[in-house]
Batch of 4 targets.
Target 1
Amino acid sequence: MKKYGVEDIRNICIVGSGSTGKTQLAEAILFSARAIDRLGKVDSGNTVCDYNTDEIERKISINSSIAFCEWKDKKINIIDTPGYADFVGEVVGALPVVETVILNVCAVNGVDVGTENSWEHVQESMKPCMIFINRMDKENENFEKALKSLKEKLTPNVAPIVIPIGSGKEFSGVINLIINKAMVEGKEVEIPEEMTVKAKEYREKLLEAIASSEDTLIEKYLEGHELSPEETRGALKKGIIEHKIVPVLCGSGLRNIGIEQLLDFVVEYAPSPPEAGDANINPNGPFWALVFKTSSEPHLGIINYLKIYSGEILAGSDVINNNKSSTERLGQIAFVRGKTRIEVKEAKTGDIVTAVKLRDTGTNDTLCDPKNRVSLLRIAFPEPVVDMAVYAKAKGEEEKIANALSTAIREDSTLKFEMNRETKELILSGMGSL
């Protein structure tokens, strides 16, 4: 596959309330970008990101899942996260290593408690955010109502970039307010006559929001002068990075409508790692990377997920785990798309890769060049809030349970377990009973 420089990488994280279509949105993105050749469905248990047996059976995401696609000469790394509070650690672990967040909102329910909780995590992370109103094809969807709930419950800075054509079963496409064109069945067409007045109203509001984010432009706009396309693009991107504008797009992940417009918007307006202003990003420096996720696969063992902040890594190179002062060999490195691993010989600054069979490395460890040791800021995972006693079904299997829990805890940093000396019980602690 093509090699991408740091300026051509976009790292995004999809967050939102449980069962609102986040995984289906990720699937549609991969399908639209031709990273996969068929559009899977969560209900059918055949999506790229929900591949764990429990996820397929329950039809919910339990783990964060990483995938990537290529779109218009840019590489987009996607982290699809669970929406249920029990698995909030997966969200907390993903946010620090991306530059942009996509908040997925259901067009039927609008902003609910889960959405508000996700928004709080986004605000704490200080990451630029885009909002995607999903499930526009559902009965009882209401774009206007969902948009109103965003403004009232989240932020007044929301600014629609696209608006829907039709609703429910009649939902057929979107109108892109920036270029003032309609997108129907993957083709750019003129705005339907019955939508021209509404599109004009929304476009004027959008241009006003963009102009208001830049002092030099608001004067020009108020004097009646039209903003040039360059001024509009520049101010919009700057406004997103500075949190002055929260763009809103819409569509249907299930019917794959509005997804190409989302991809176009991500590559154009989502910041690359250097543009996001992270001081740790250094393409020309020595290698260092943060392990932000750990998982266990039956045939591969422990898999570590790394975000590269500086330099590059080569397969077969030796690095230092600075947290444990141990040497690790990166025998195999790979890009991942769900459970599919694509082995590569090298990876560069800003990218996300996996490494397998590292001896002592886990989540929150910094791997670096042996000659330039650094420690990256650790991810602050929430403390457990629920305690439960765990018992073996048969006597003598306590050690097996302890070993299994040790593996689970390597995967989920919000889990803890200990032996209570007074009650002689094995206590498992986590974020919820699920």
Target 2
Amino acid sequence: VEEFIAAMAGNEKKMNQGLITPLIDHILEARGLNARGWAVTPDAFRPDALPLHFSMNYKLIDEHGRQLDMNRSLVALRGEWGKEAKEEFAELHETPSEYTQLTDWTFGELPELMEVPVGKQTVIGYPALSDEGETVSLKVFDSAEEAAETHRKGLARLFMLQFKEQVKYFDKNVPGMSQMGMQYMALGTTDELKRQIVDLTFERACLSEPLPADAAAFKARCAEAKARLGLIMQEVCRMVGAVLTESQAVSKKLPAFKAHAAATQDIEAQLKRLLGKRFIIETPFERLQHYPRYLKGIQVRLDKLKADPARDTRLMAEYAPLWTNYERRFLQLAKQGASDPQIEQFRWLMEELRISLFAQELRTPVPVSTKRLQKQWEGIQHG
């Protein structure tokens, strides 16, 4: 242990990889096991097999100092008590009237967190702007994640309130709107599509990190965004147009493959995941840019399916266990109201794996294979 700690000292890059990966590297290197052809895999380390006293024990205390619950899993505690705690916190911290119905940044500097008295204790609260439609208000949340999500929407609304003329103009002048509206018909109305395009345009123009935290920074960001809104709107429309065009091409092609039930069901499920009603605003922009390639990949897959159905079946069997692992973990997290950036990243790597397996000629931005992702999954599970 001492030897490992000394080896890690000052090596920030390795320390950011968690514990298991650097520990494996150290064991193989320090003991010369590499040269002997030995391998140590992440599944050799089993946190669940450790004696309980090696895990942190969390106590849930109310405002009077009484213990309500205790568990070694913080996620389980949050799952059981989170809703109740959130409601209680919201009741205790109603927004003062001077921080409601805001249409401009008139509330001084916005701190990242604040101390809030609850009974005899002090707890941490996270302030955020909340979108109320025609105005915004300042609210305090008990969770940093919820505050961040609410704040982005509230801040976007505050920017849009400064750009009323541009919003009015975009309402009538979205490039290529009539054609995109027809292509989007299976998912929703033209107005719903337009709303998402306008929202994404403002998000791209105004919400780059670091987000403004005071009136001066907000005003400066407004000035920067004003010059770029038109160009960004065109860029967003080009990309959304490409996605909808490729999606329409898949929809036209798919009915001819009804005889290949397993493949078409798999593709339909993939399309449903990618193209929900609000996919434009709910998909991270850097992922959305890859959608045309993902949809082209489906068309290439269908062409190859016609020539060699057995190959498609074999590749699906290779893909399926990894997807099942991901889906099981995703549903577990969703039930607990939690999220995990590693699981989110893995989900998009699975999209790249589909390209690598079924439409290799379209290339992937990073090297992916079933073997690589299997290894990565083991690392996520045991990291």
Target 3
Amino acid sequence: DRVAAPAAPRVRSVDRGVSVALKYHPTIAASRARVEQAQANLEQVSAGFLPQISVSADYRWERSGGAGSTARAGARIANSGIVQTQGGGVQVSQLLWDWGKTGALRQQAYANFVAAQADLASAENEAVFAFKQAFFDNLKQEQLVRVGEETVRQFEKRLEQVKGFVEAGTRQKYDLTKAQVDLGNAQLVTVKAR
């Protein structure tokens, strides 16, 4: 029946939050995927300028014989009438001229790649700004709560002092009412800040 020790509170920092936002924000992840897609498209279009090599292979079994058939060249399987043939080829081609079509496609793919990178940078900037704004708004609220709590403590002390002065007859009852109202206002501000 061991009780686990409470986890140490995590220290919040702007840098840690920014790194988490940049790593997991869904808009940034989608923008990264668009950059990768645009880069792959650019590589694919650019490949049109490179030499193209194609290789083919062929292997067949054919039954030969019968009326009107001609003898086929190839390795014969003993007394079965089956002929084995194989072949292959290699073809090399290089684009020389296509009236600028591939070049225009490459320029378009490059422009799409640059635009995707700009979209990614914009998404990263927006995510960082949104995180920092929320982070500092949260810190501001925490400080407002602390200030409000301290103000309430001061008004409580002031109220006790004024009660003593009123009981001693050195202050009027109006001062006691004003101290109570000031304490109530301070408590209201603290509740709103929370």
Target 4
Amino acid sequence: MKDILIISNYYPPEKGAAANRIEQLALKLNQNGYTVSVISPLPNYPKGKLFPEYKGKFSVIEKIQNITLKRLWIYPSNSSNIFKRIISTFSFSTTLFFYLLFVRTPKKVIVQSPPLLLSFTAVLALWIKRKKIILNVSDLWPIAAIELGVLKKNSVSHKFLCFMERFIYKKATHIFGQSNEIISHIHSIFPDKKCFLYRNYPDHVIENIVDKKQSSDEPIKLFYAGLLGVAQGVYEIIQQLDLENLNVELHIFGDGAEKTEILNYINKKQSNKIVFHGMLERNVLHETLQNLDIAFVPLKTRIYGSVPSKIFEYTALGFPVLYFGGGEGEFIVEENNLGWVVPVEDFECLNNVLKQISEVGKDEIQNMKKSIFIHAKSHFNLDEQMKQLIENDAF
């Protein structure tokens, strides 16, 4: 058996794409003959509070689904105040740094980035101990922070984050990039760095979601499921939507910083066209989605390097996608004929596309579901991706 360690800021029972993606990576490595351990903070996401079963504990070691989990102390916070969130990340980074320095770990380590401060700390400690470092980059920081408007270009903070970014790329043995844009960016800094494209493909066992029969008299039901944060911009979107005269509903699932604002807006508007469901367990969510029609995947602004994993998550279940995020995600949706693309931040175009969707009809959408399900099953295959990476000595 081969030993490998994964370091991540998120892991189940936490919810969301980041936790799911790392769990899938861990389970797939285990299925392919690796002994896998994971270091993550005590579960606290997305509410920014420790889960009840972990309160009062400094560290916990568990074994779940044959994965050894080492959960370390963190000062949790989901505050919109960036300094409080930095303190939260710094608390876990400090605990992690000393853990990696003084506790025996496998020779091969996968480090998830972002958060950039966490990955910098981990790479620094692992470099000191001469480990093989595999950096898994899912978003580009500080570029994303600049594009989201939370960081000023050429500020002291920006320059320091650029230093950390270059450091982790330089010290990594090789790098996984979640998009071609990420790999292009890394090669613009270190042209000879070995990189692998590693998409966030899901590992669903549901096979019949597209066969769910629905009445053609029901409205077309879009859904958003995920983090309700600044980057997704769901609160701004629902204020701009014009659904009242359309045969379309929007169903929202999730939790995050914008939850209260979203709920207040829905209650004030008193419209049955936007329905909030809250956060559901993944298996319950997938069961609930069988009654819905189209996955809505938005980003507040075009973020270079970002490809939302929801594109792969929901097309693998057979859902057409209404993509409103720009960048490489647009190319993936269009190239694979997965649904509709709206230019990011163009709300007039978004409402026009919703009018088109309203006129499509349930029967046509059901046909789209079947073809998208078949396409995704062969083109977004996690097992095949893992097989190719292992054959190319990526782990």
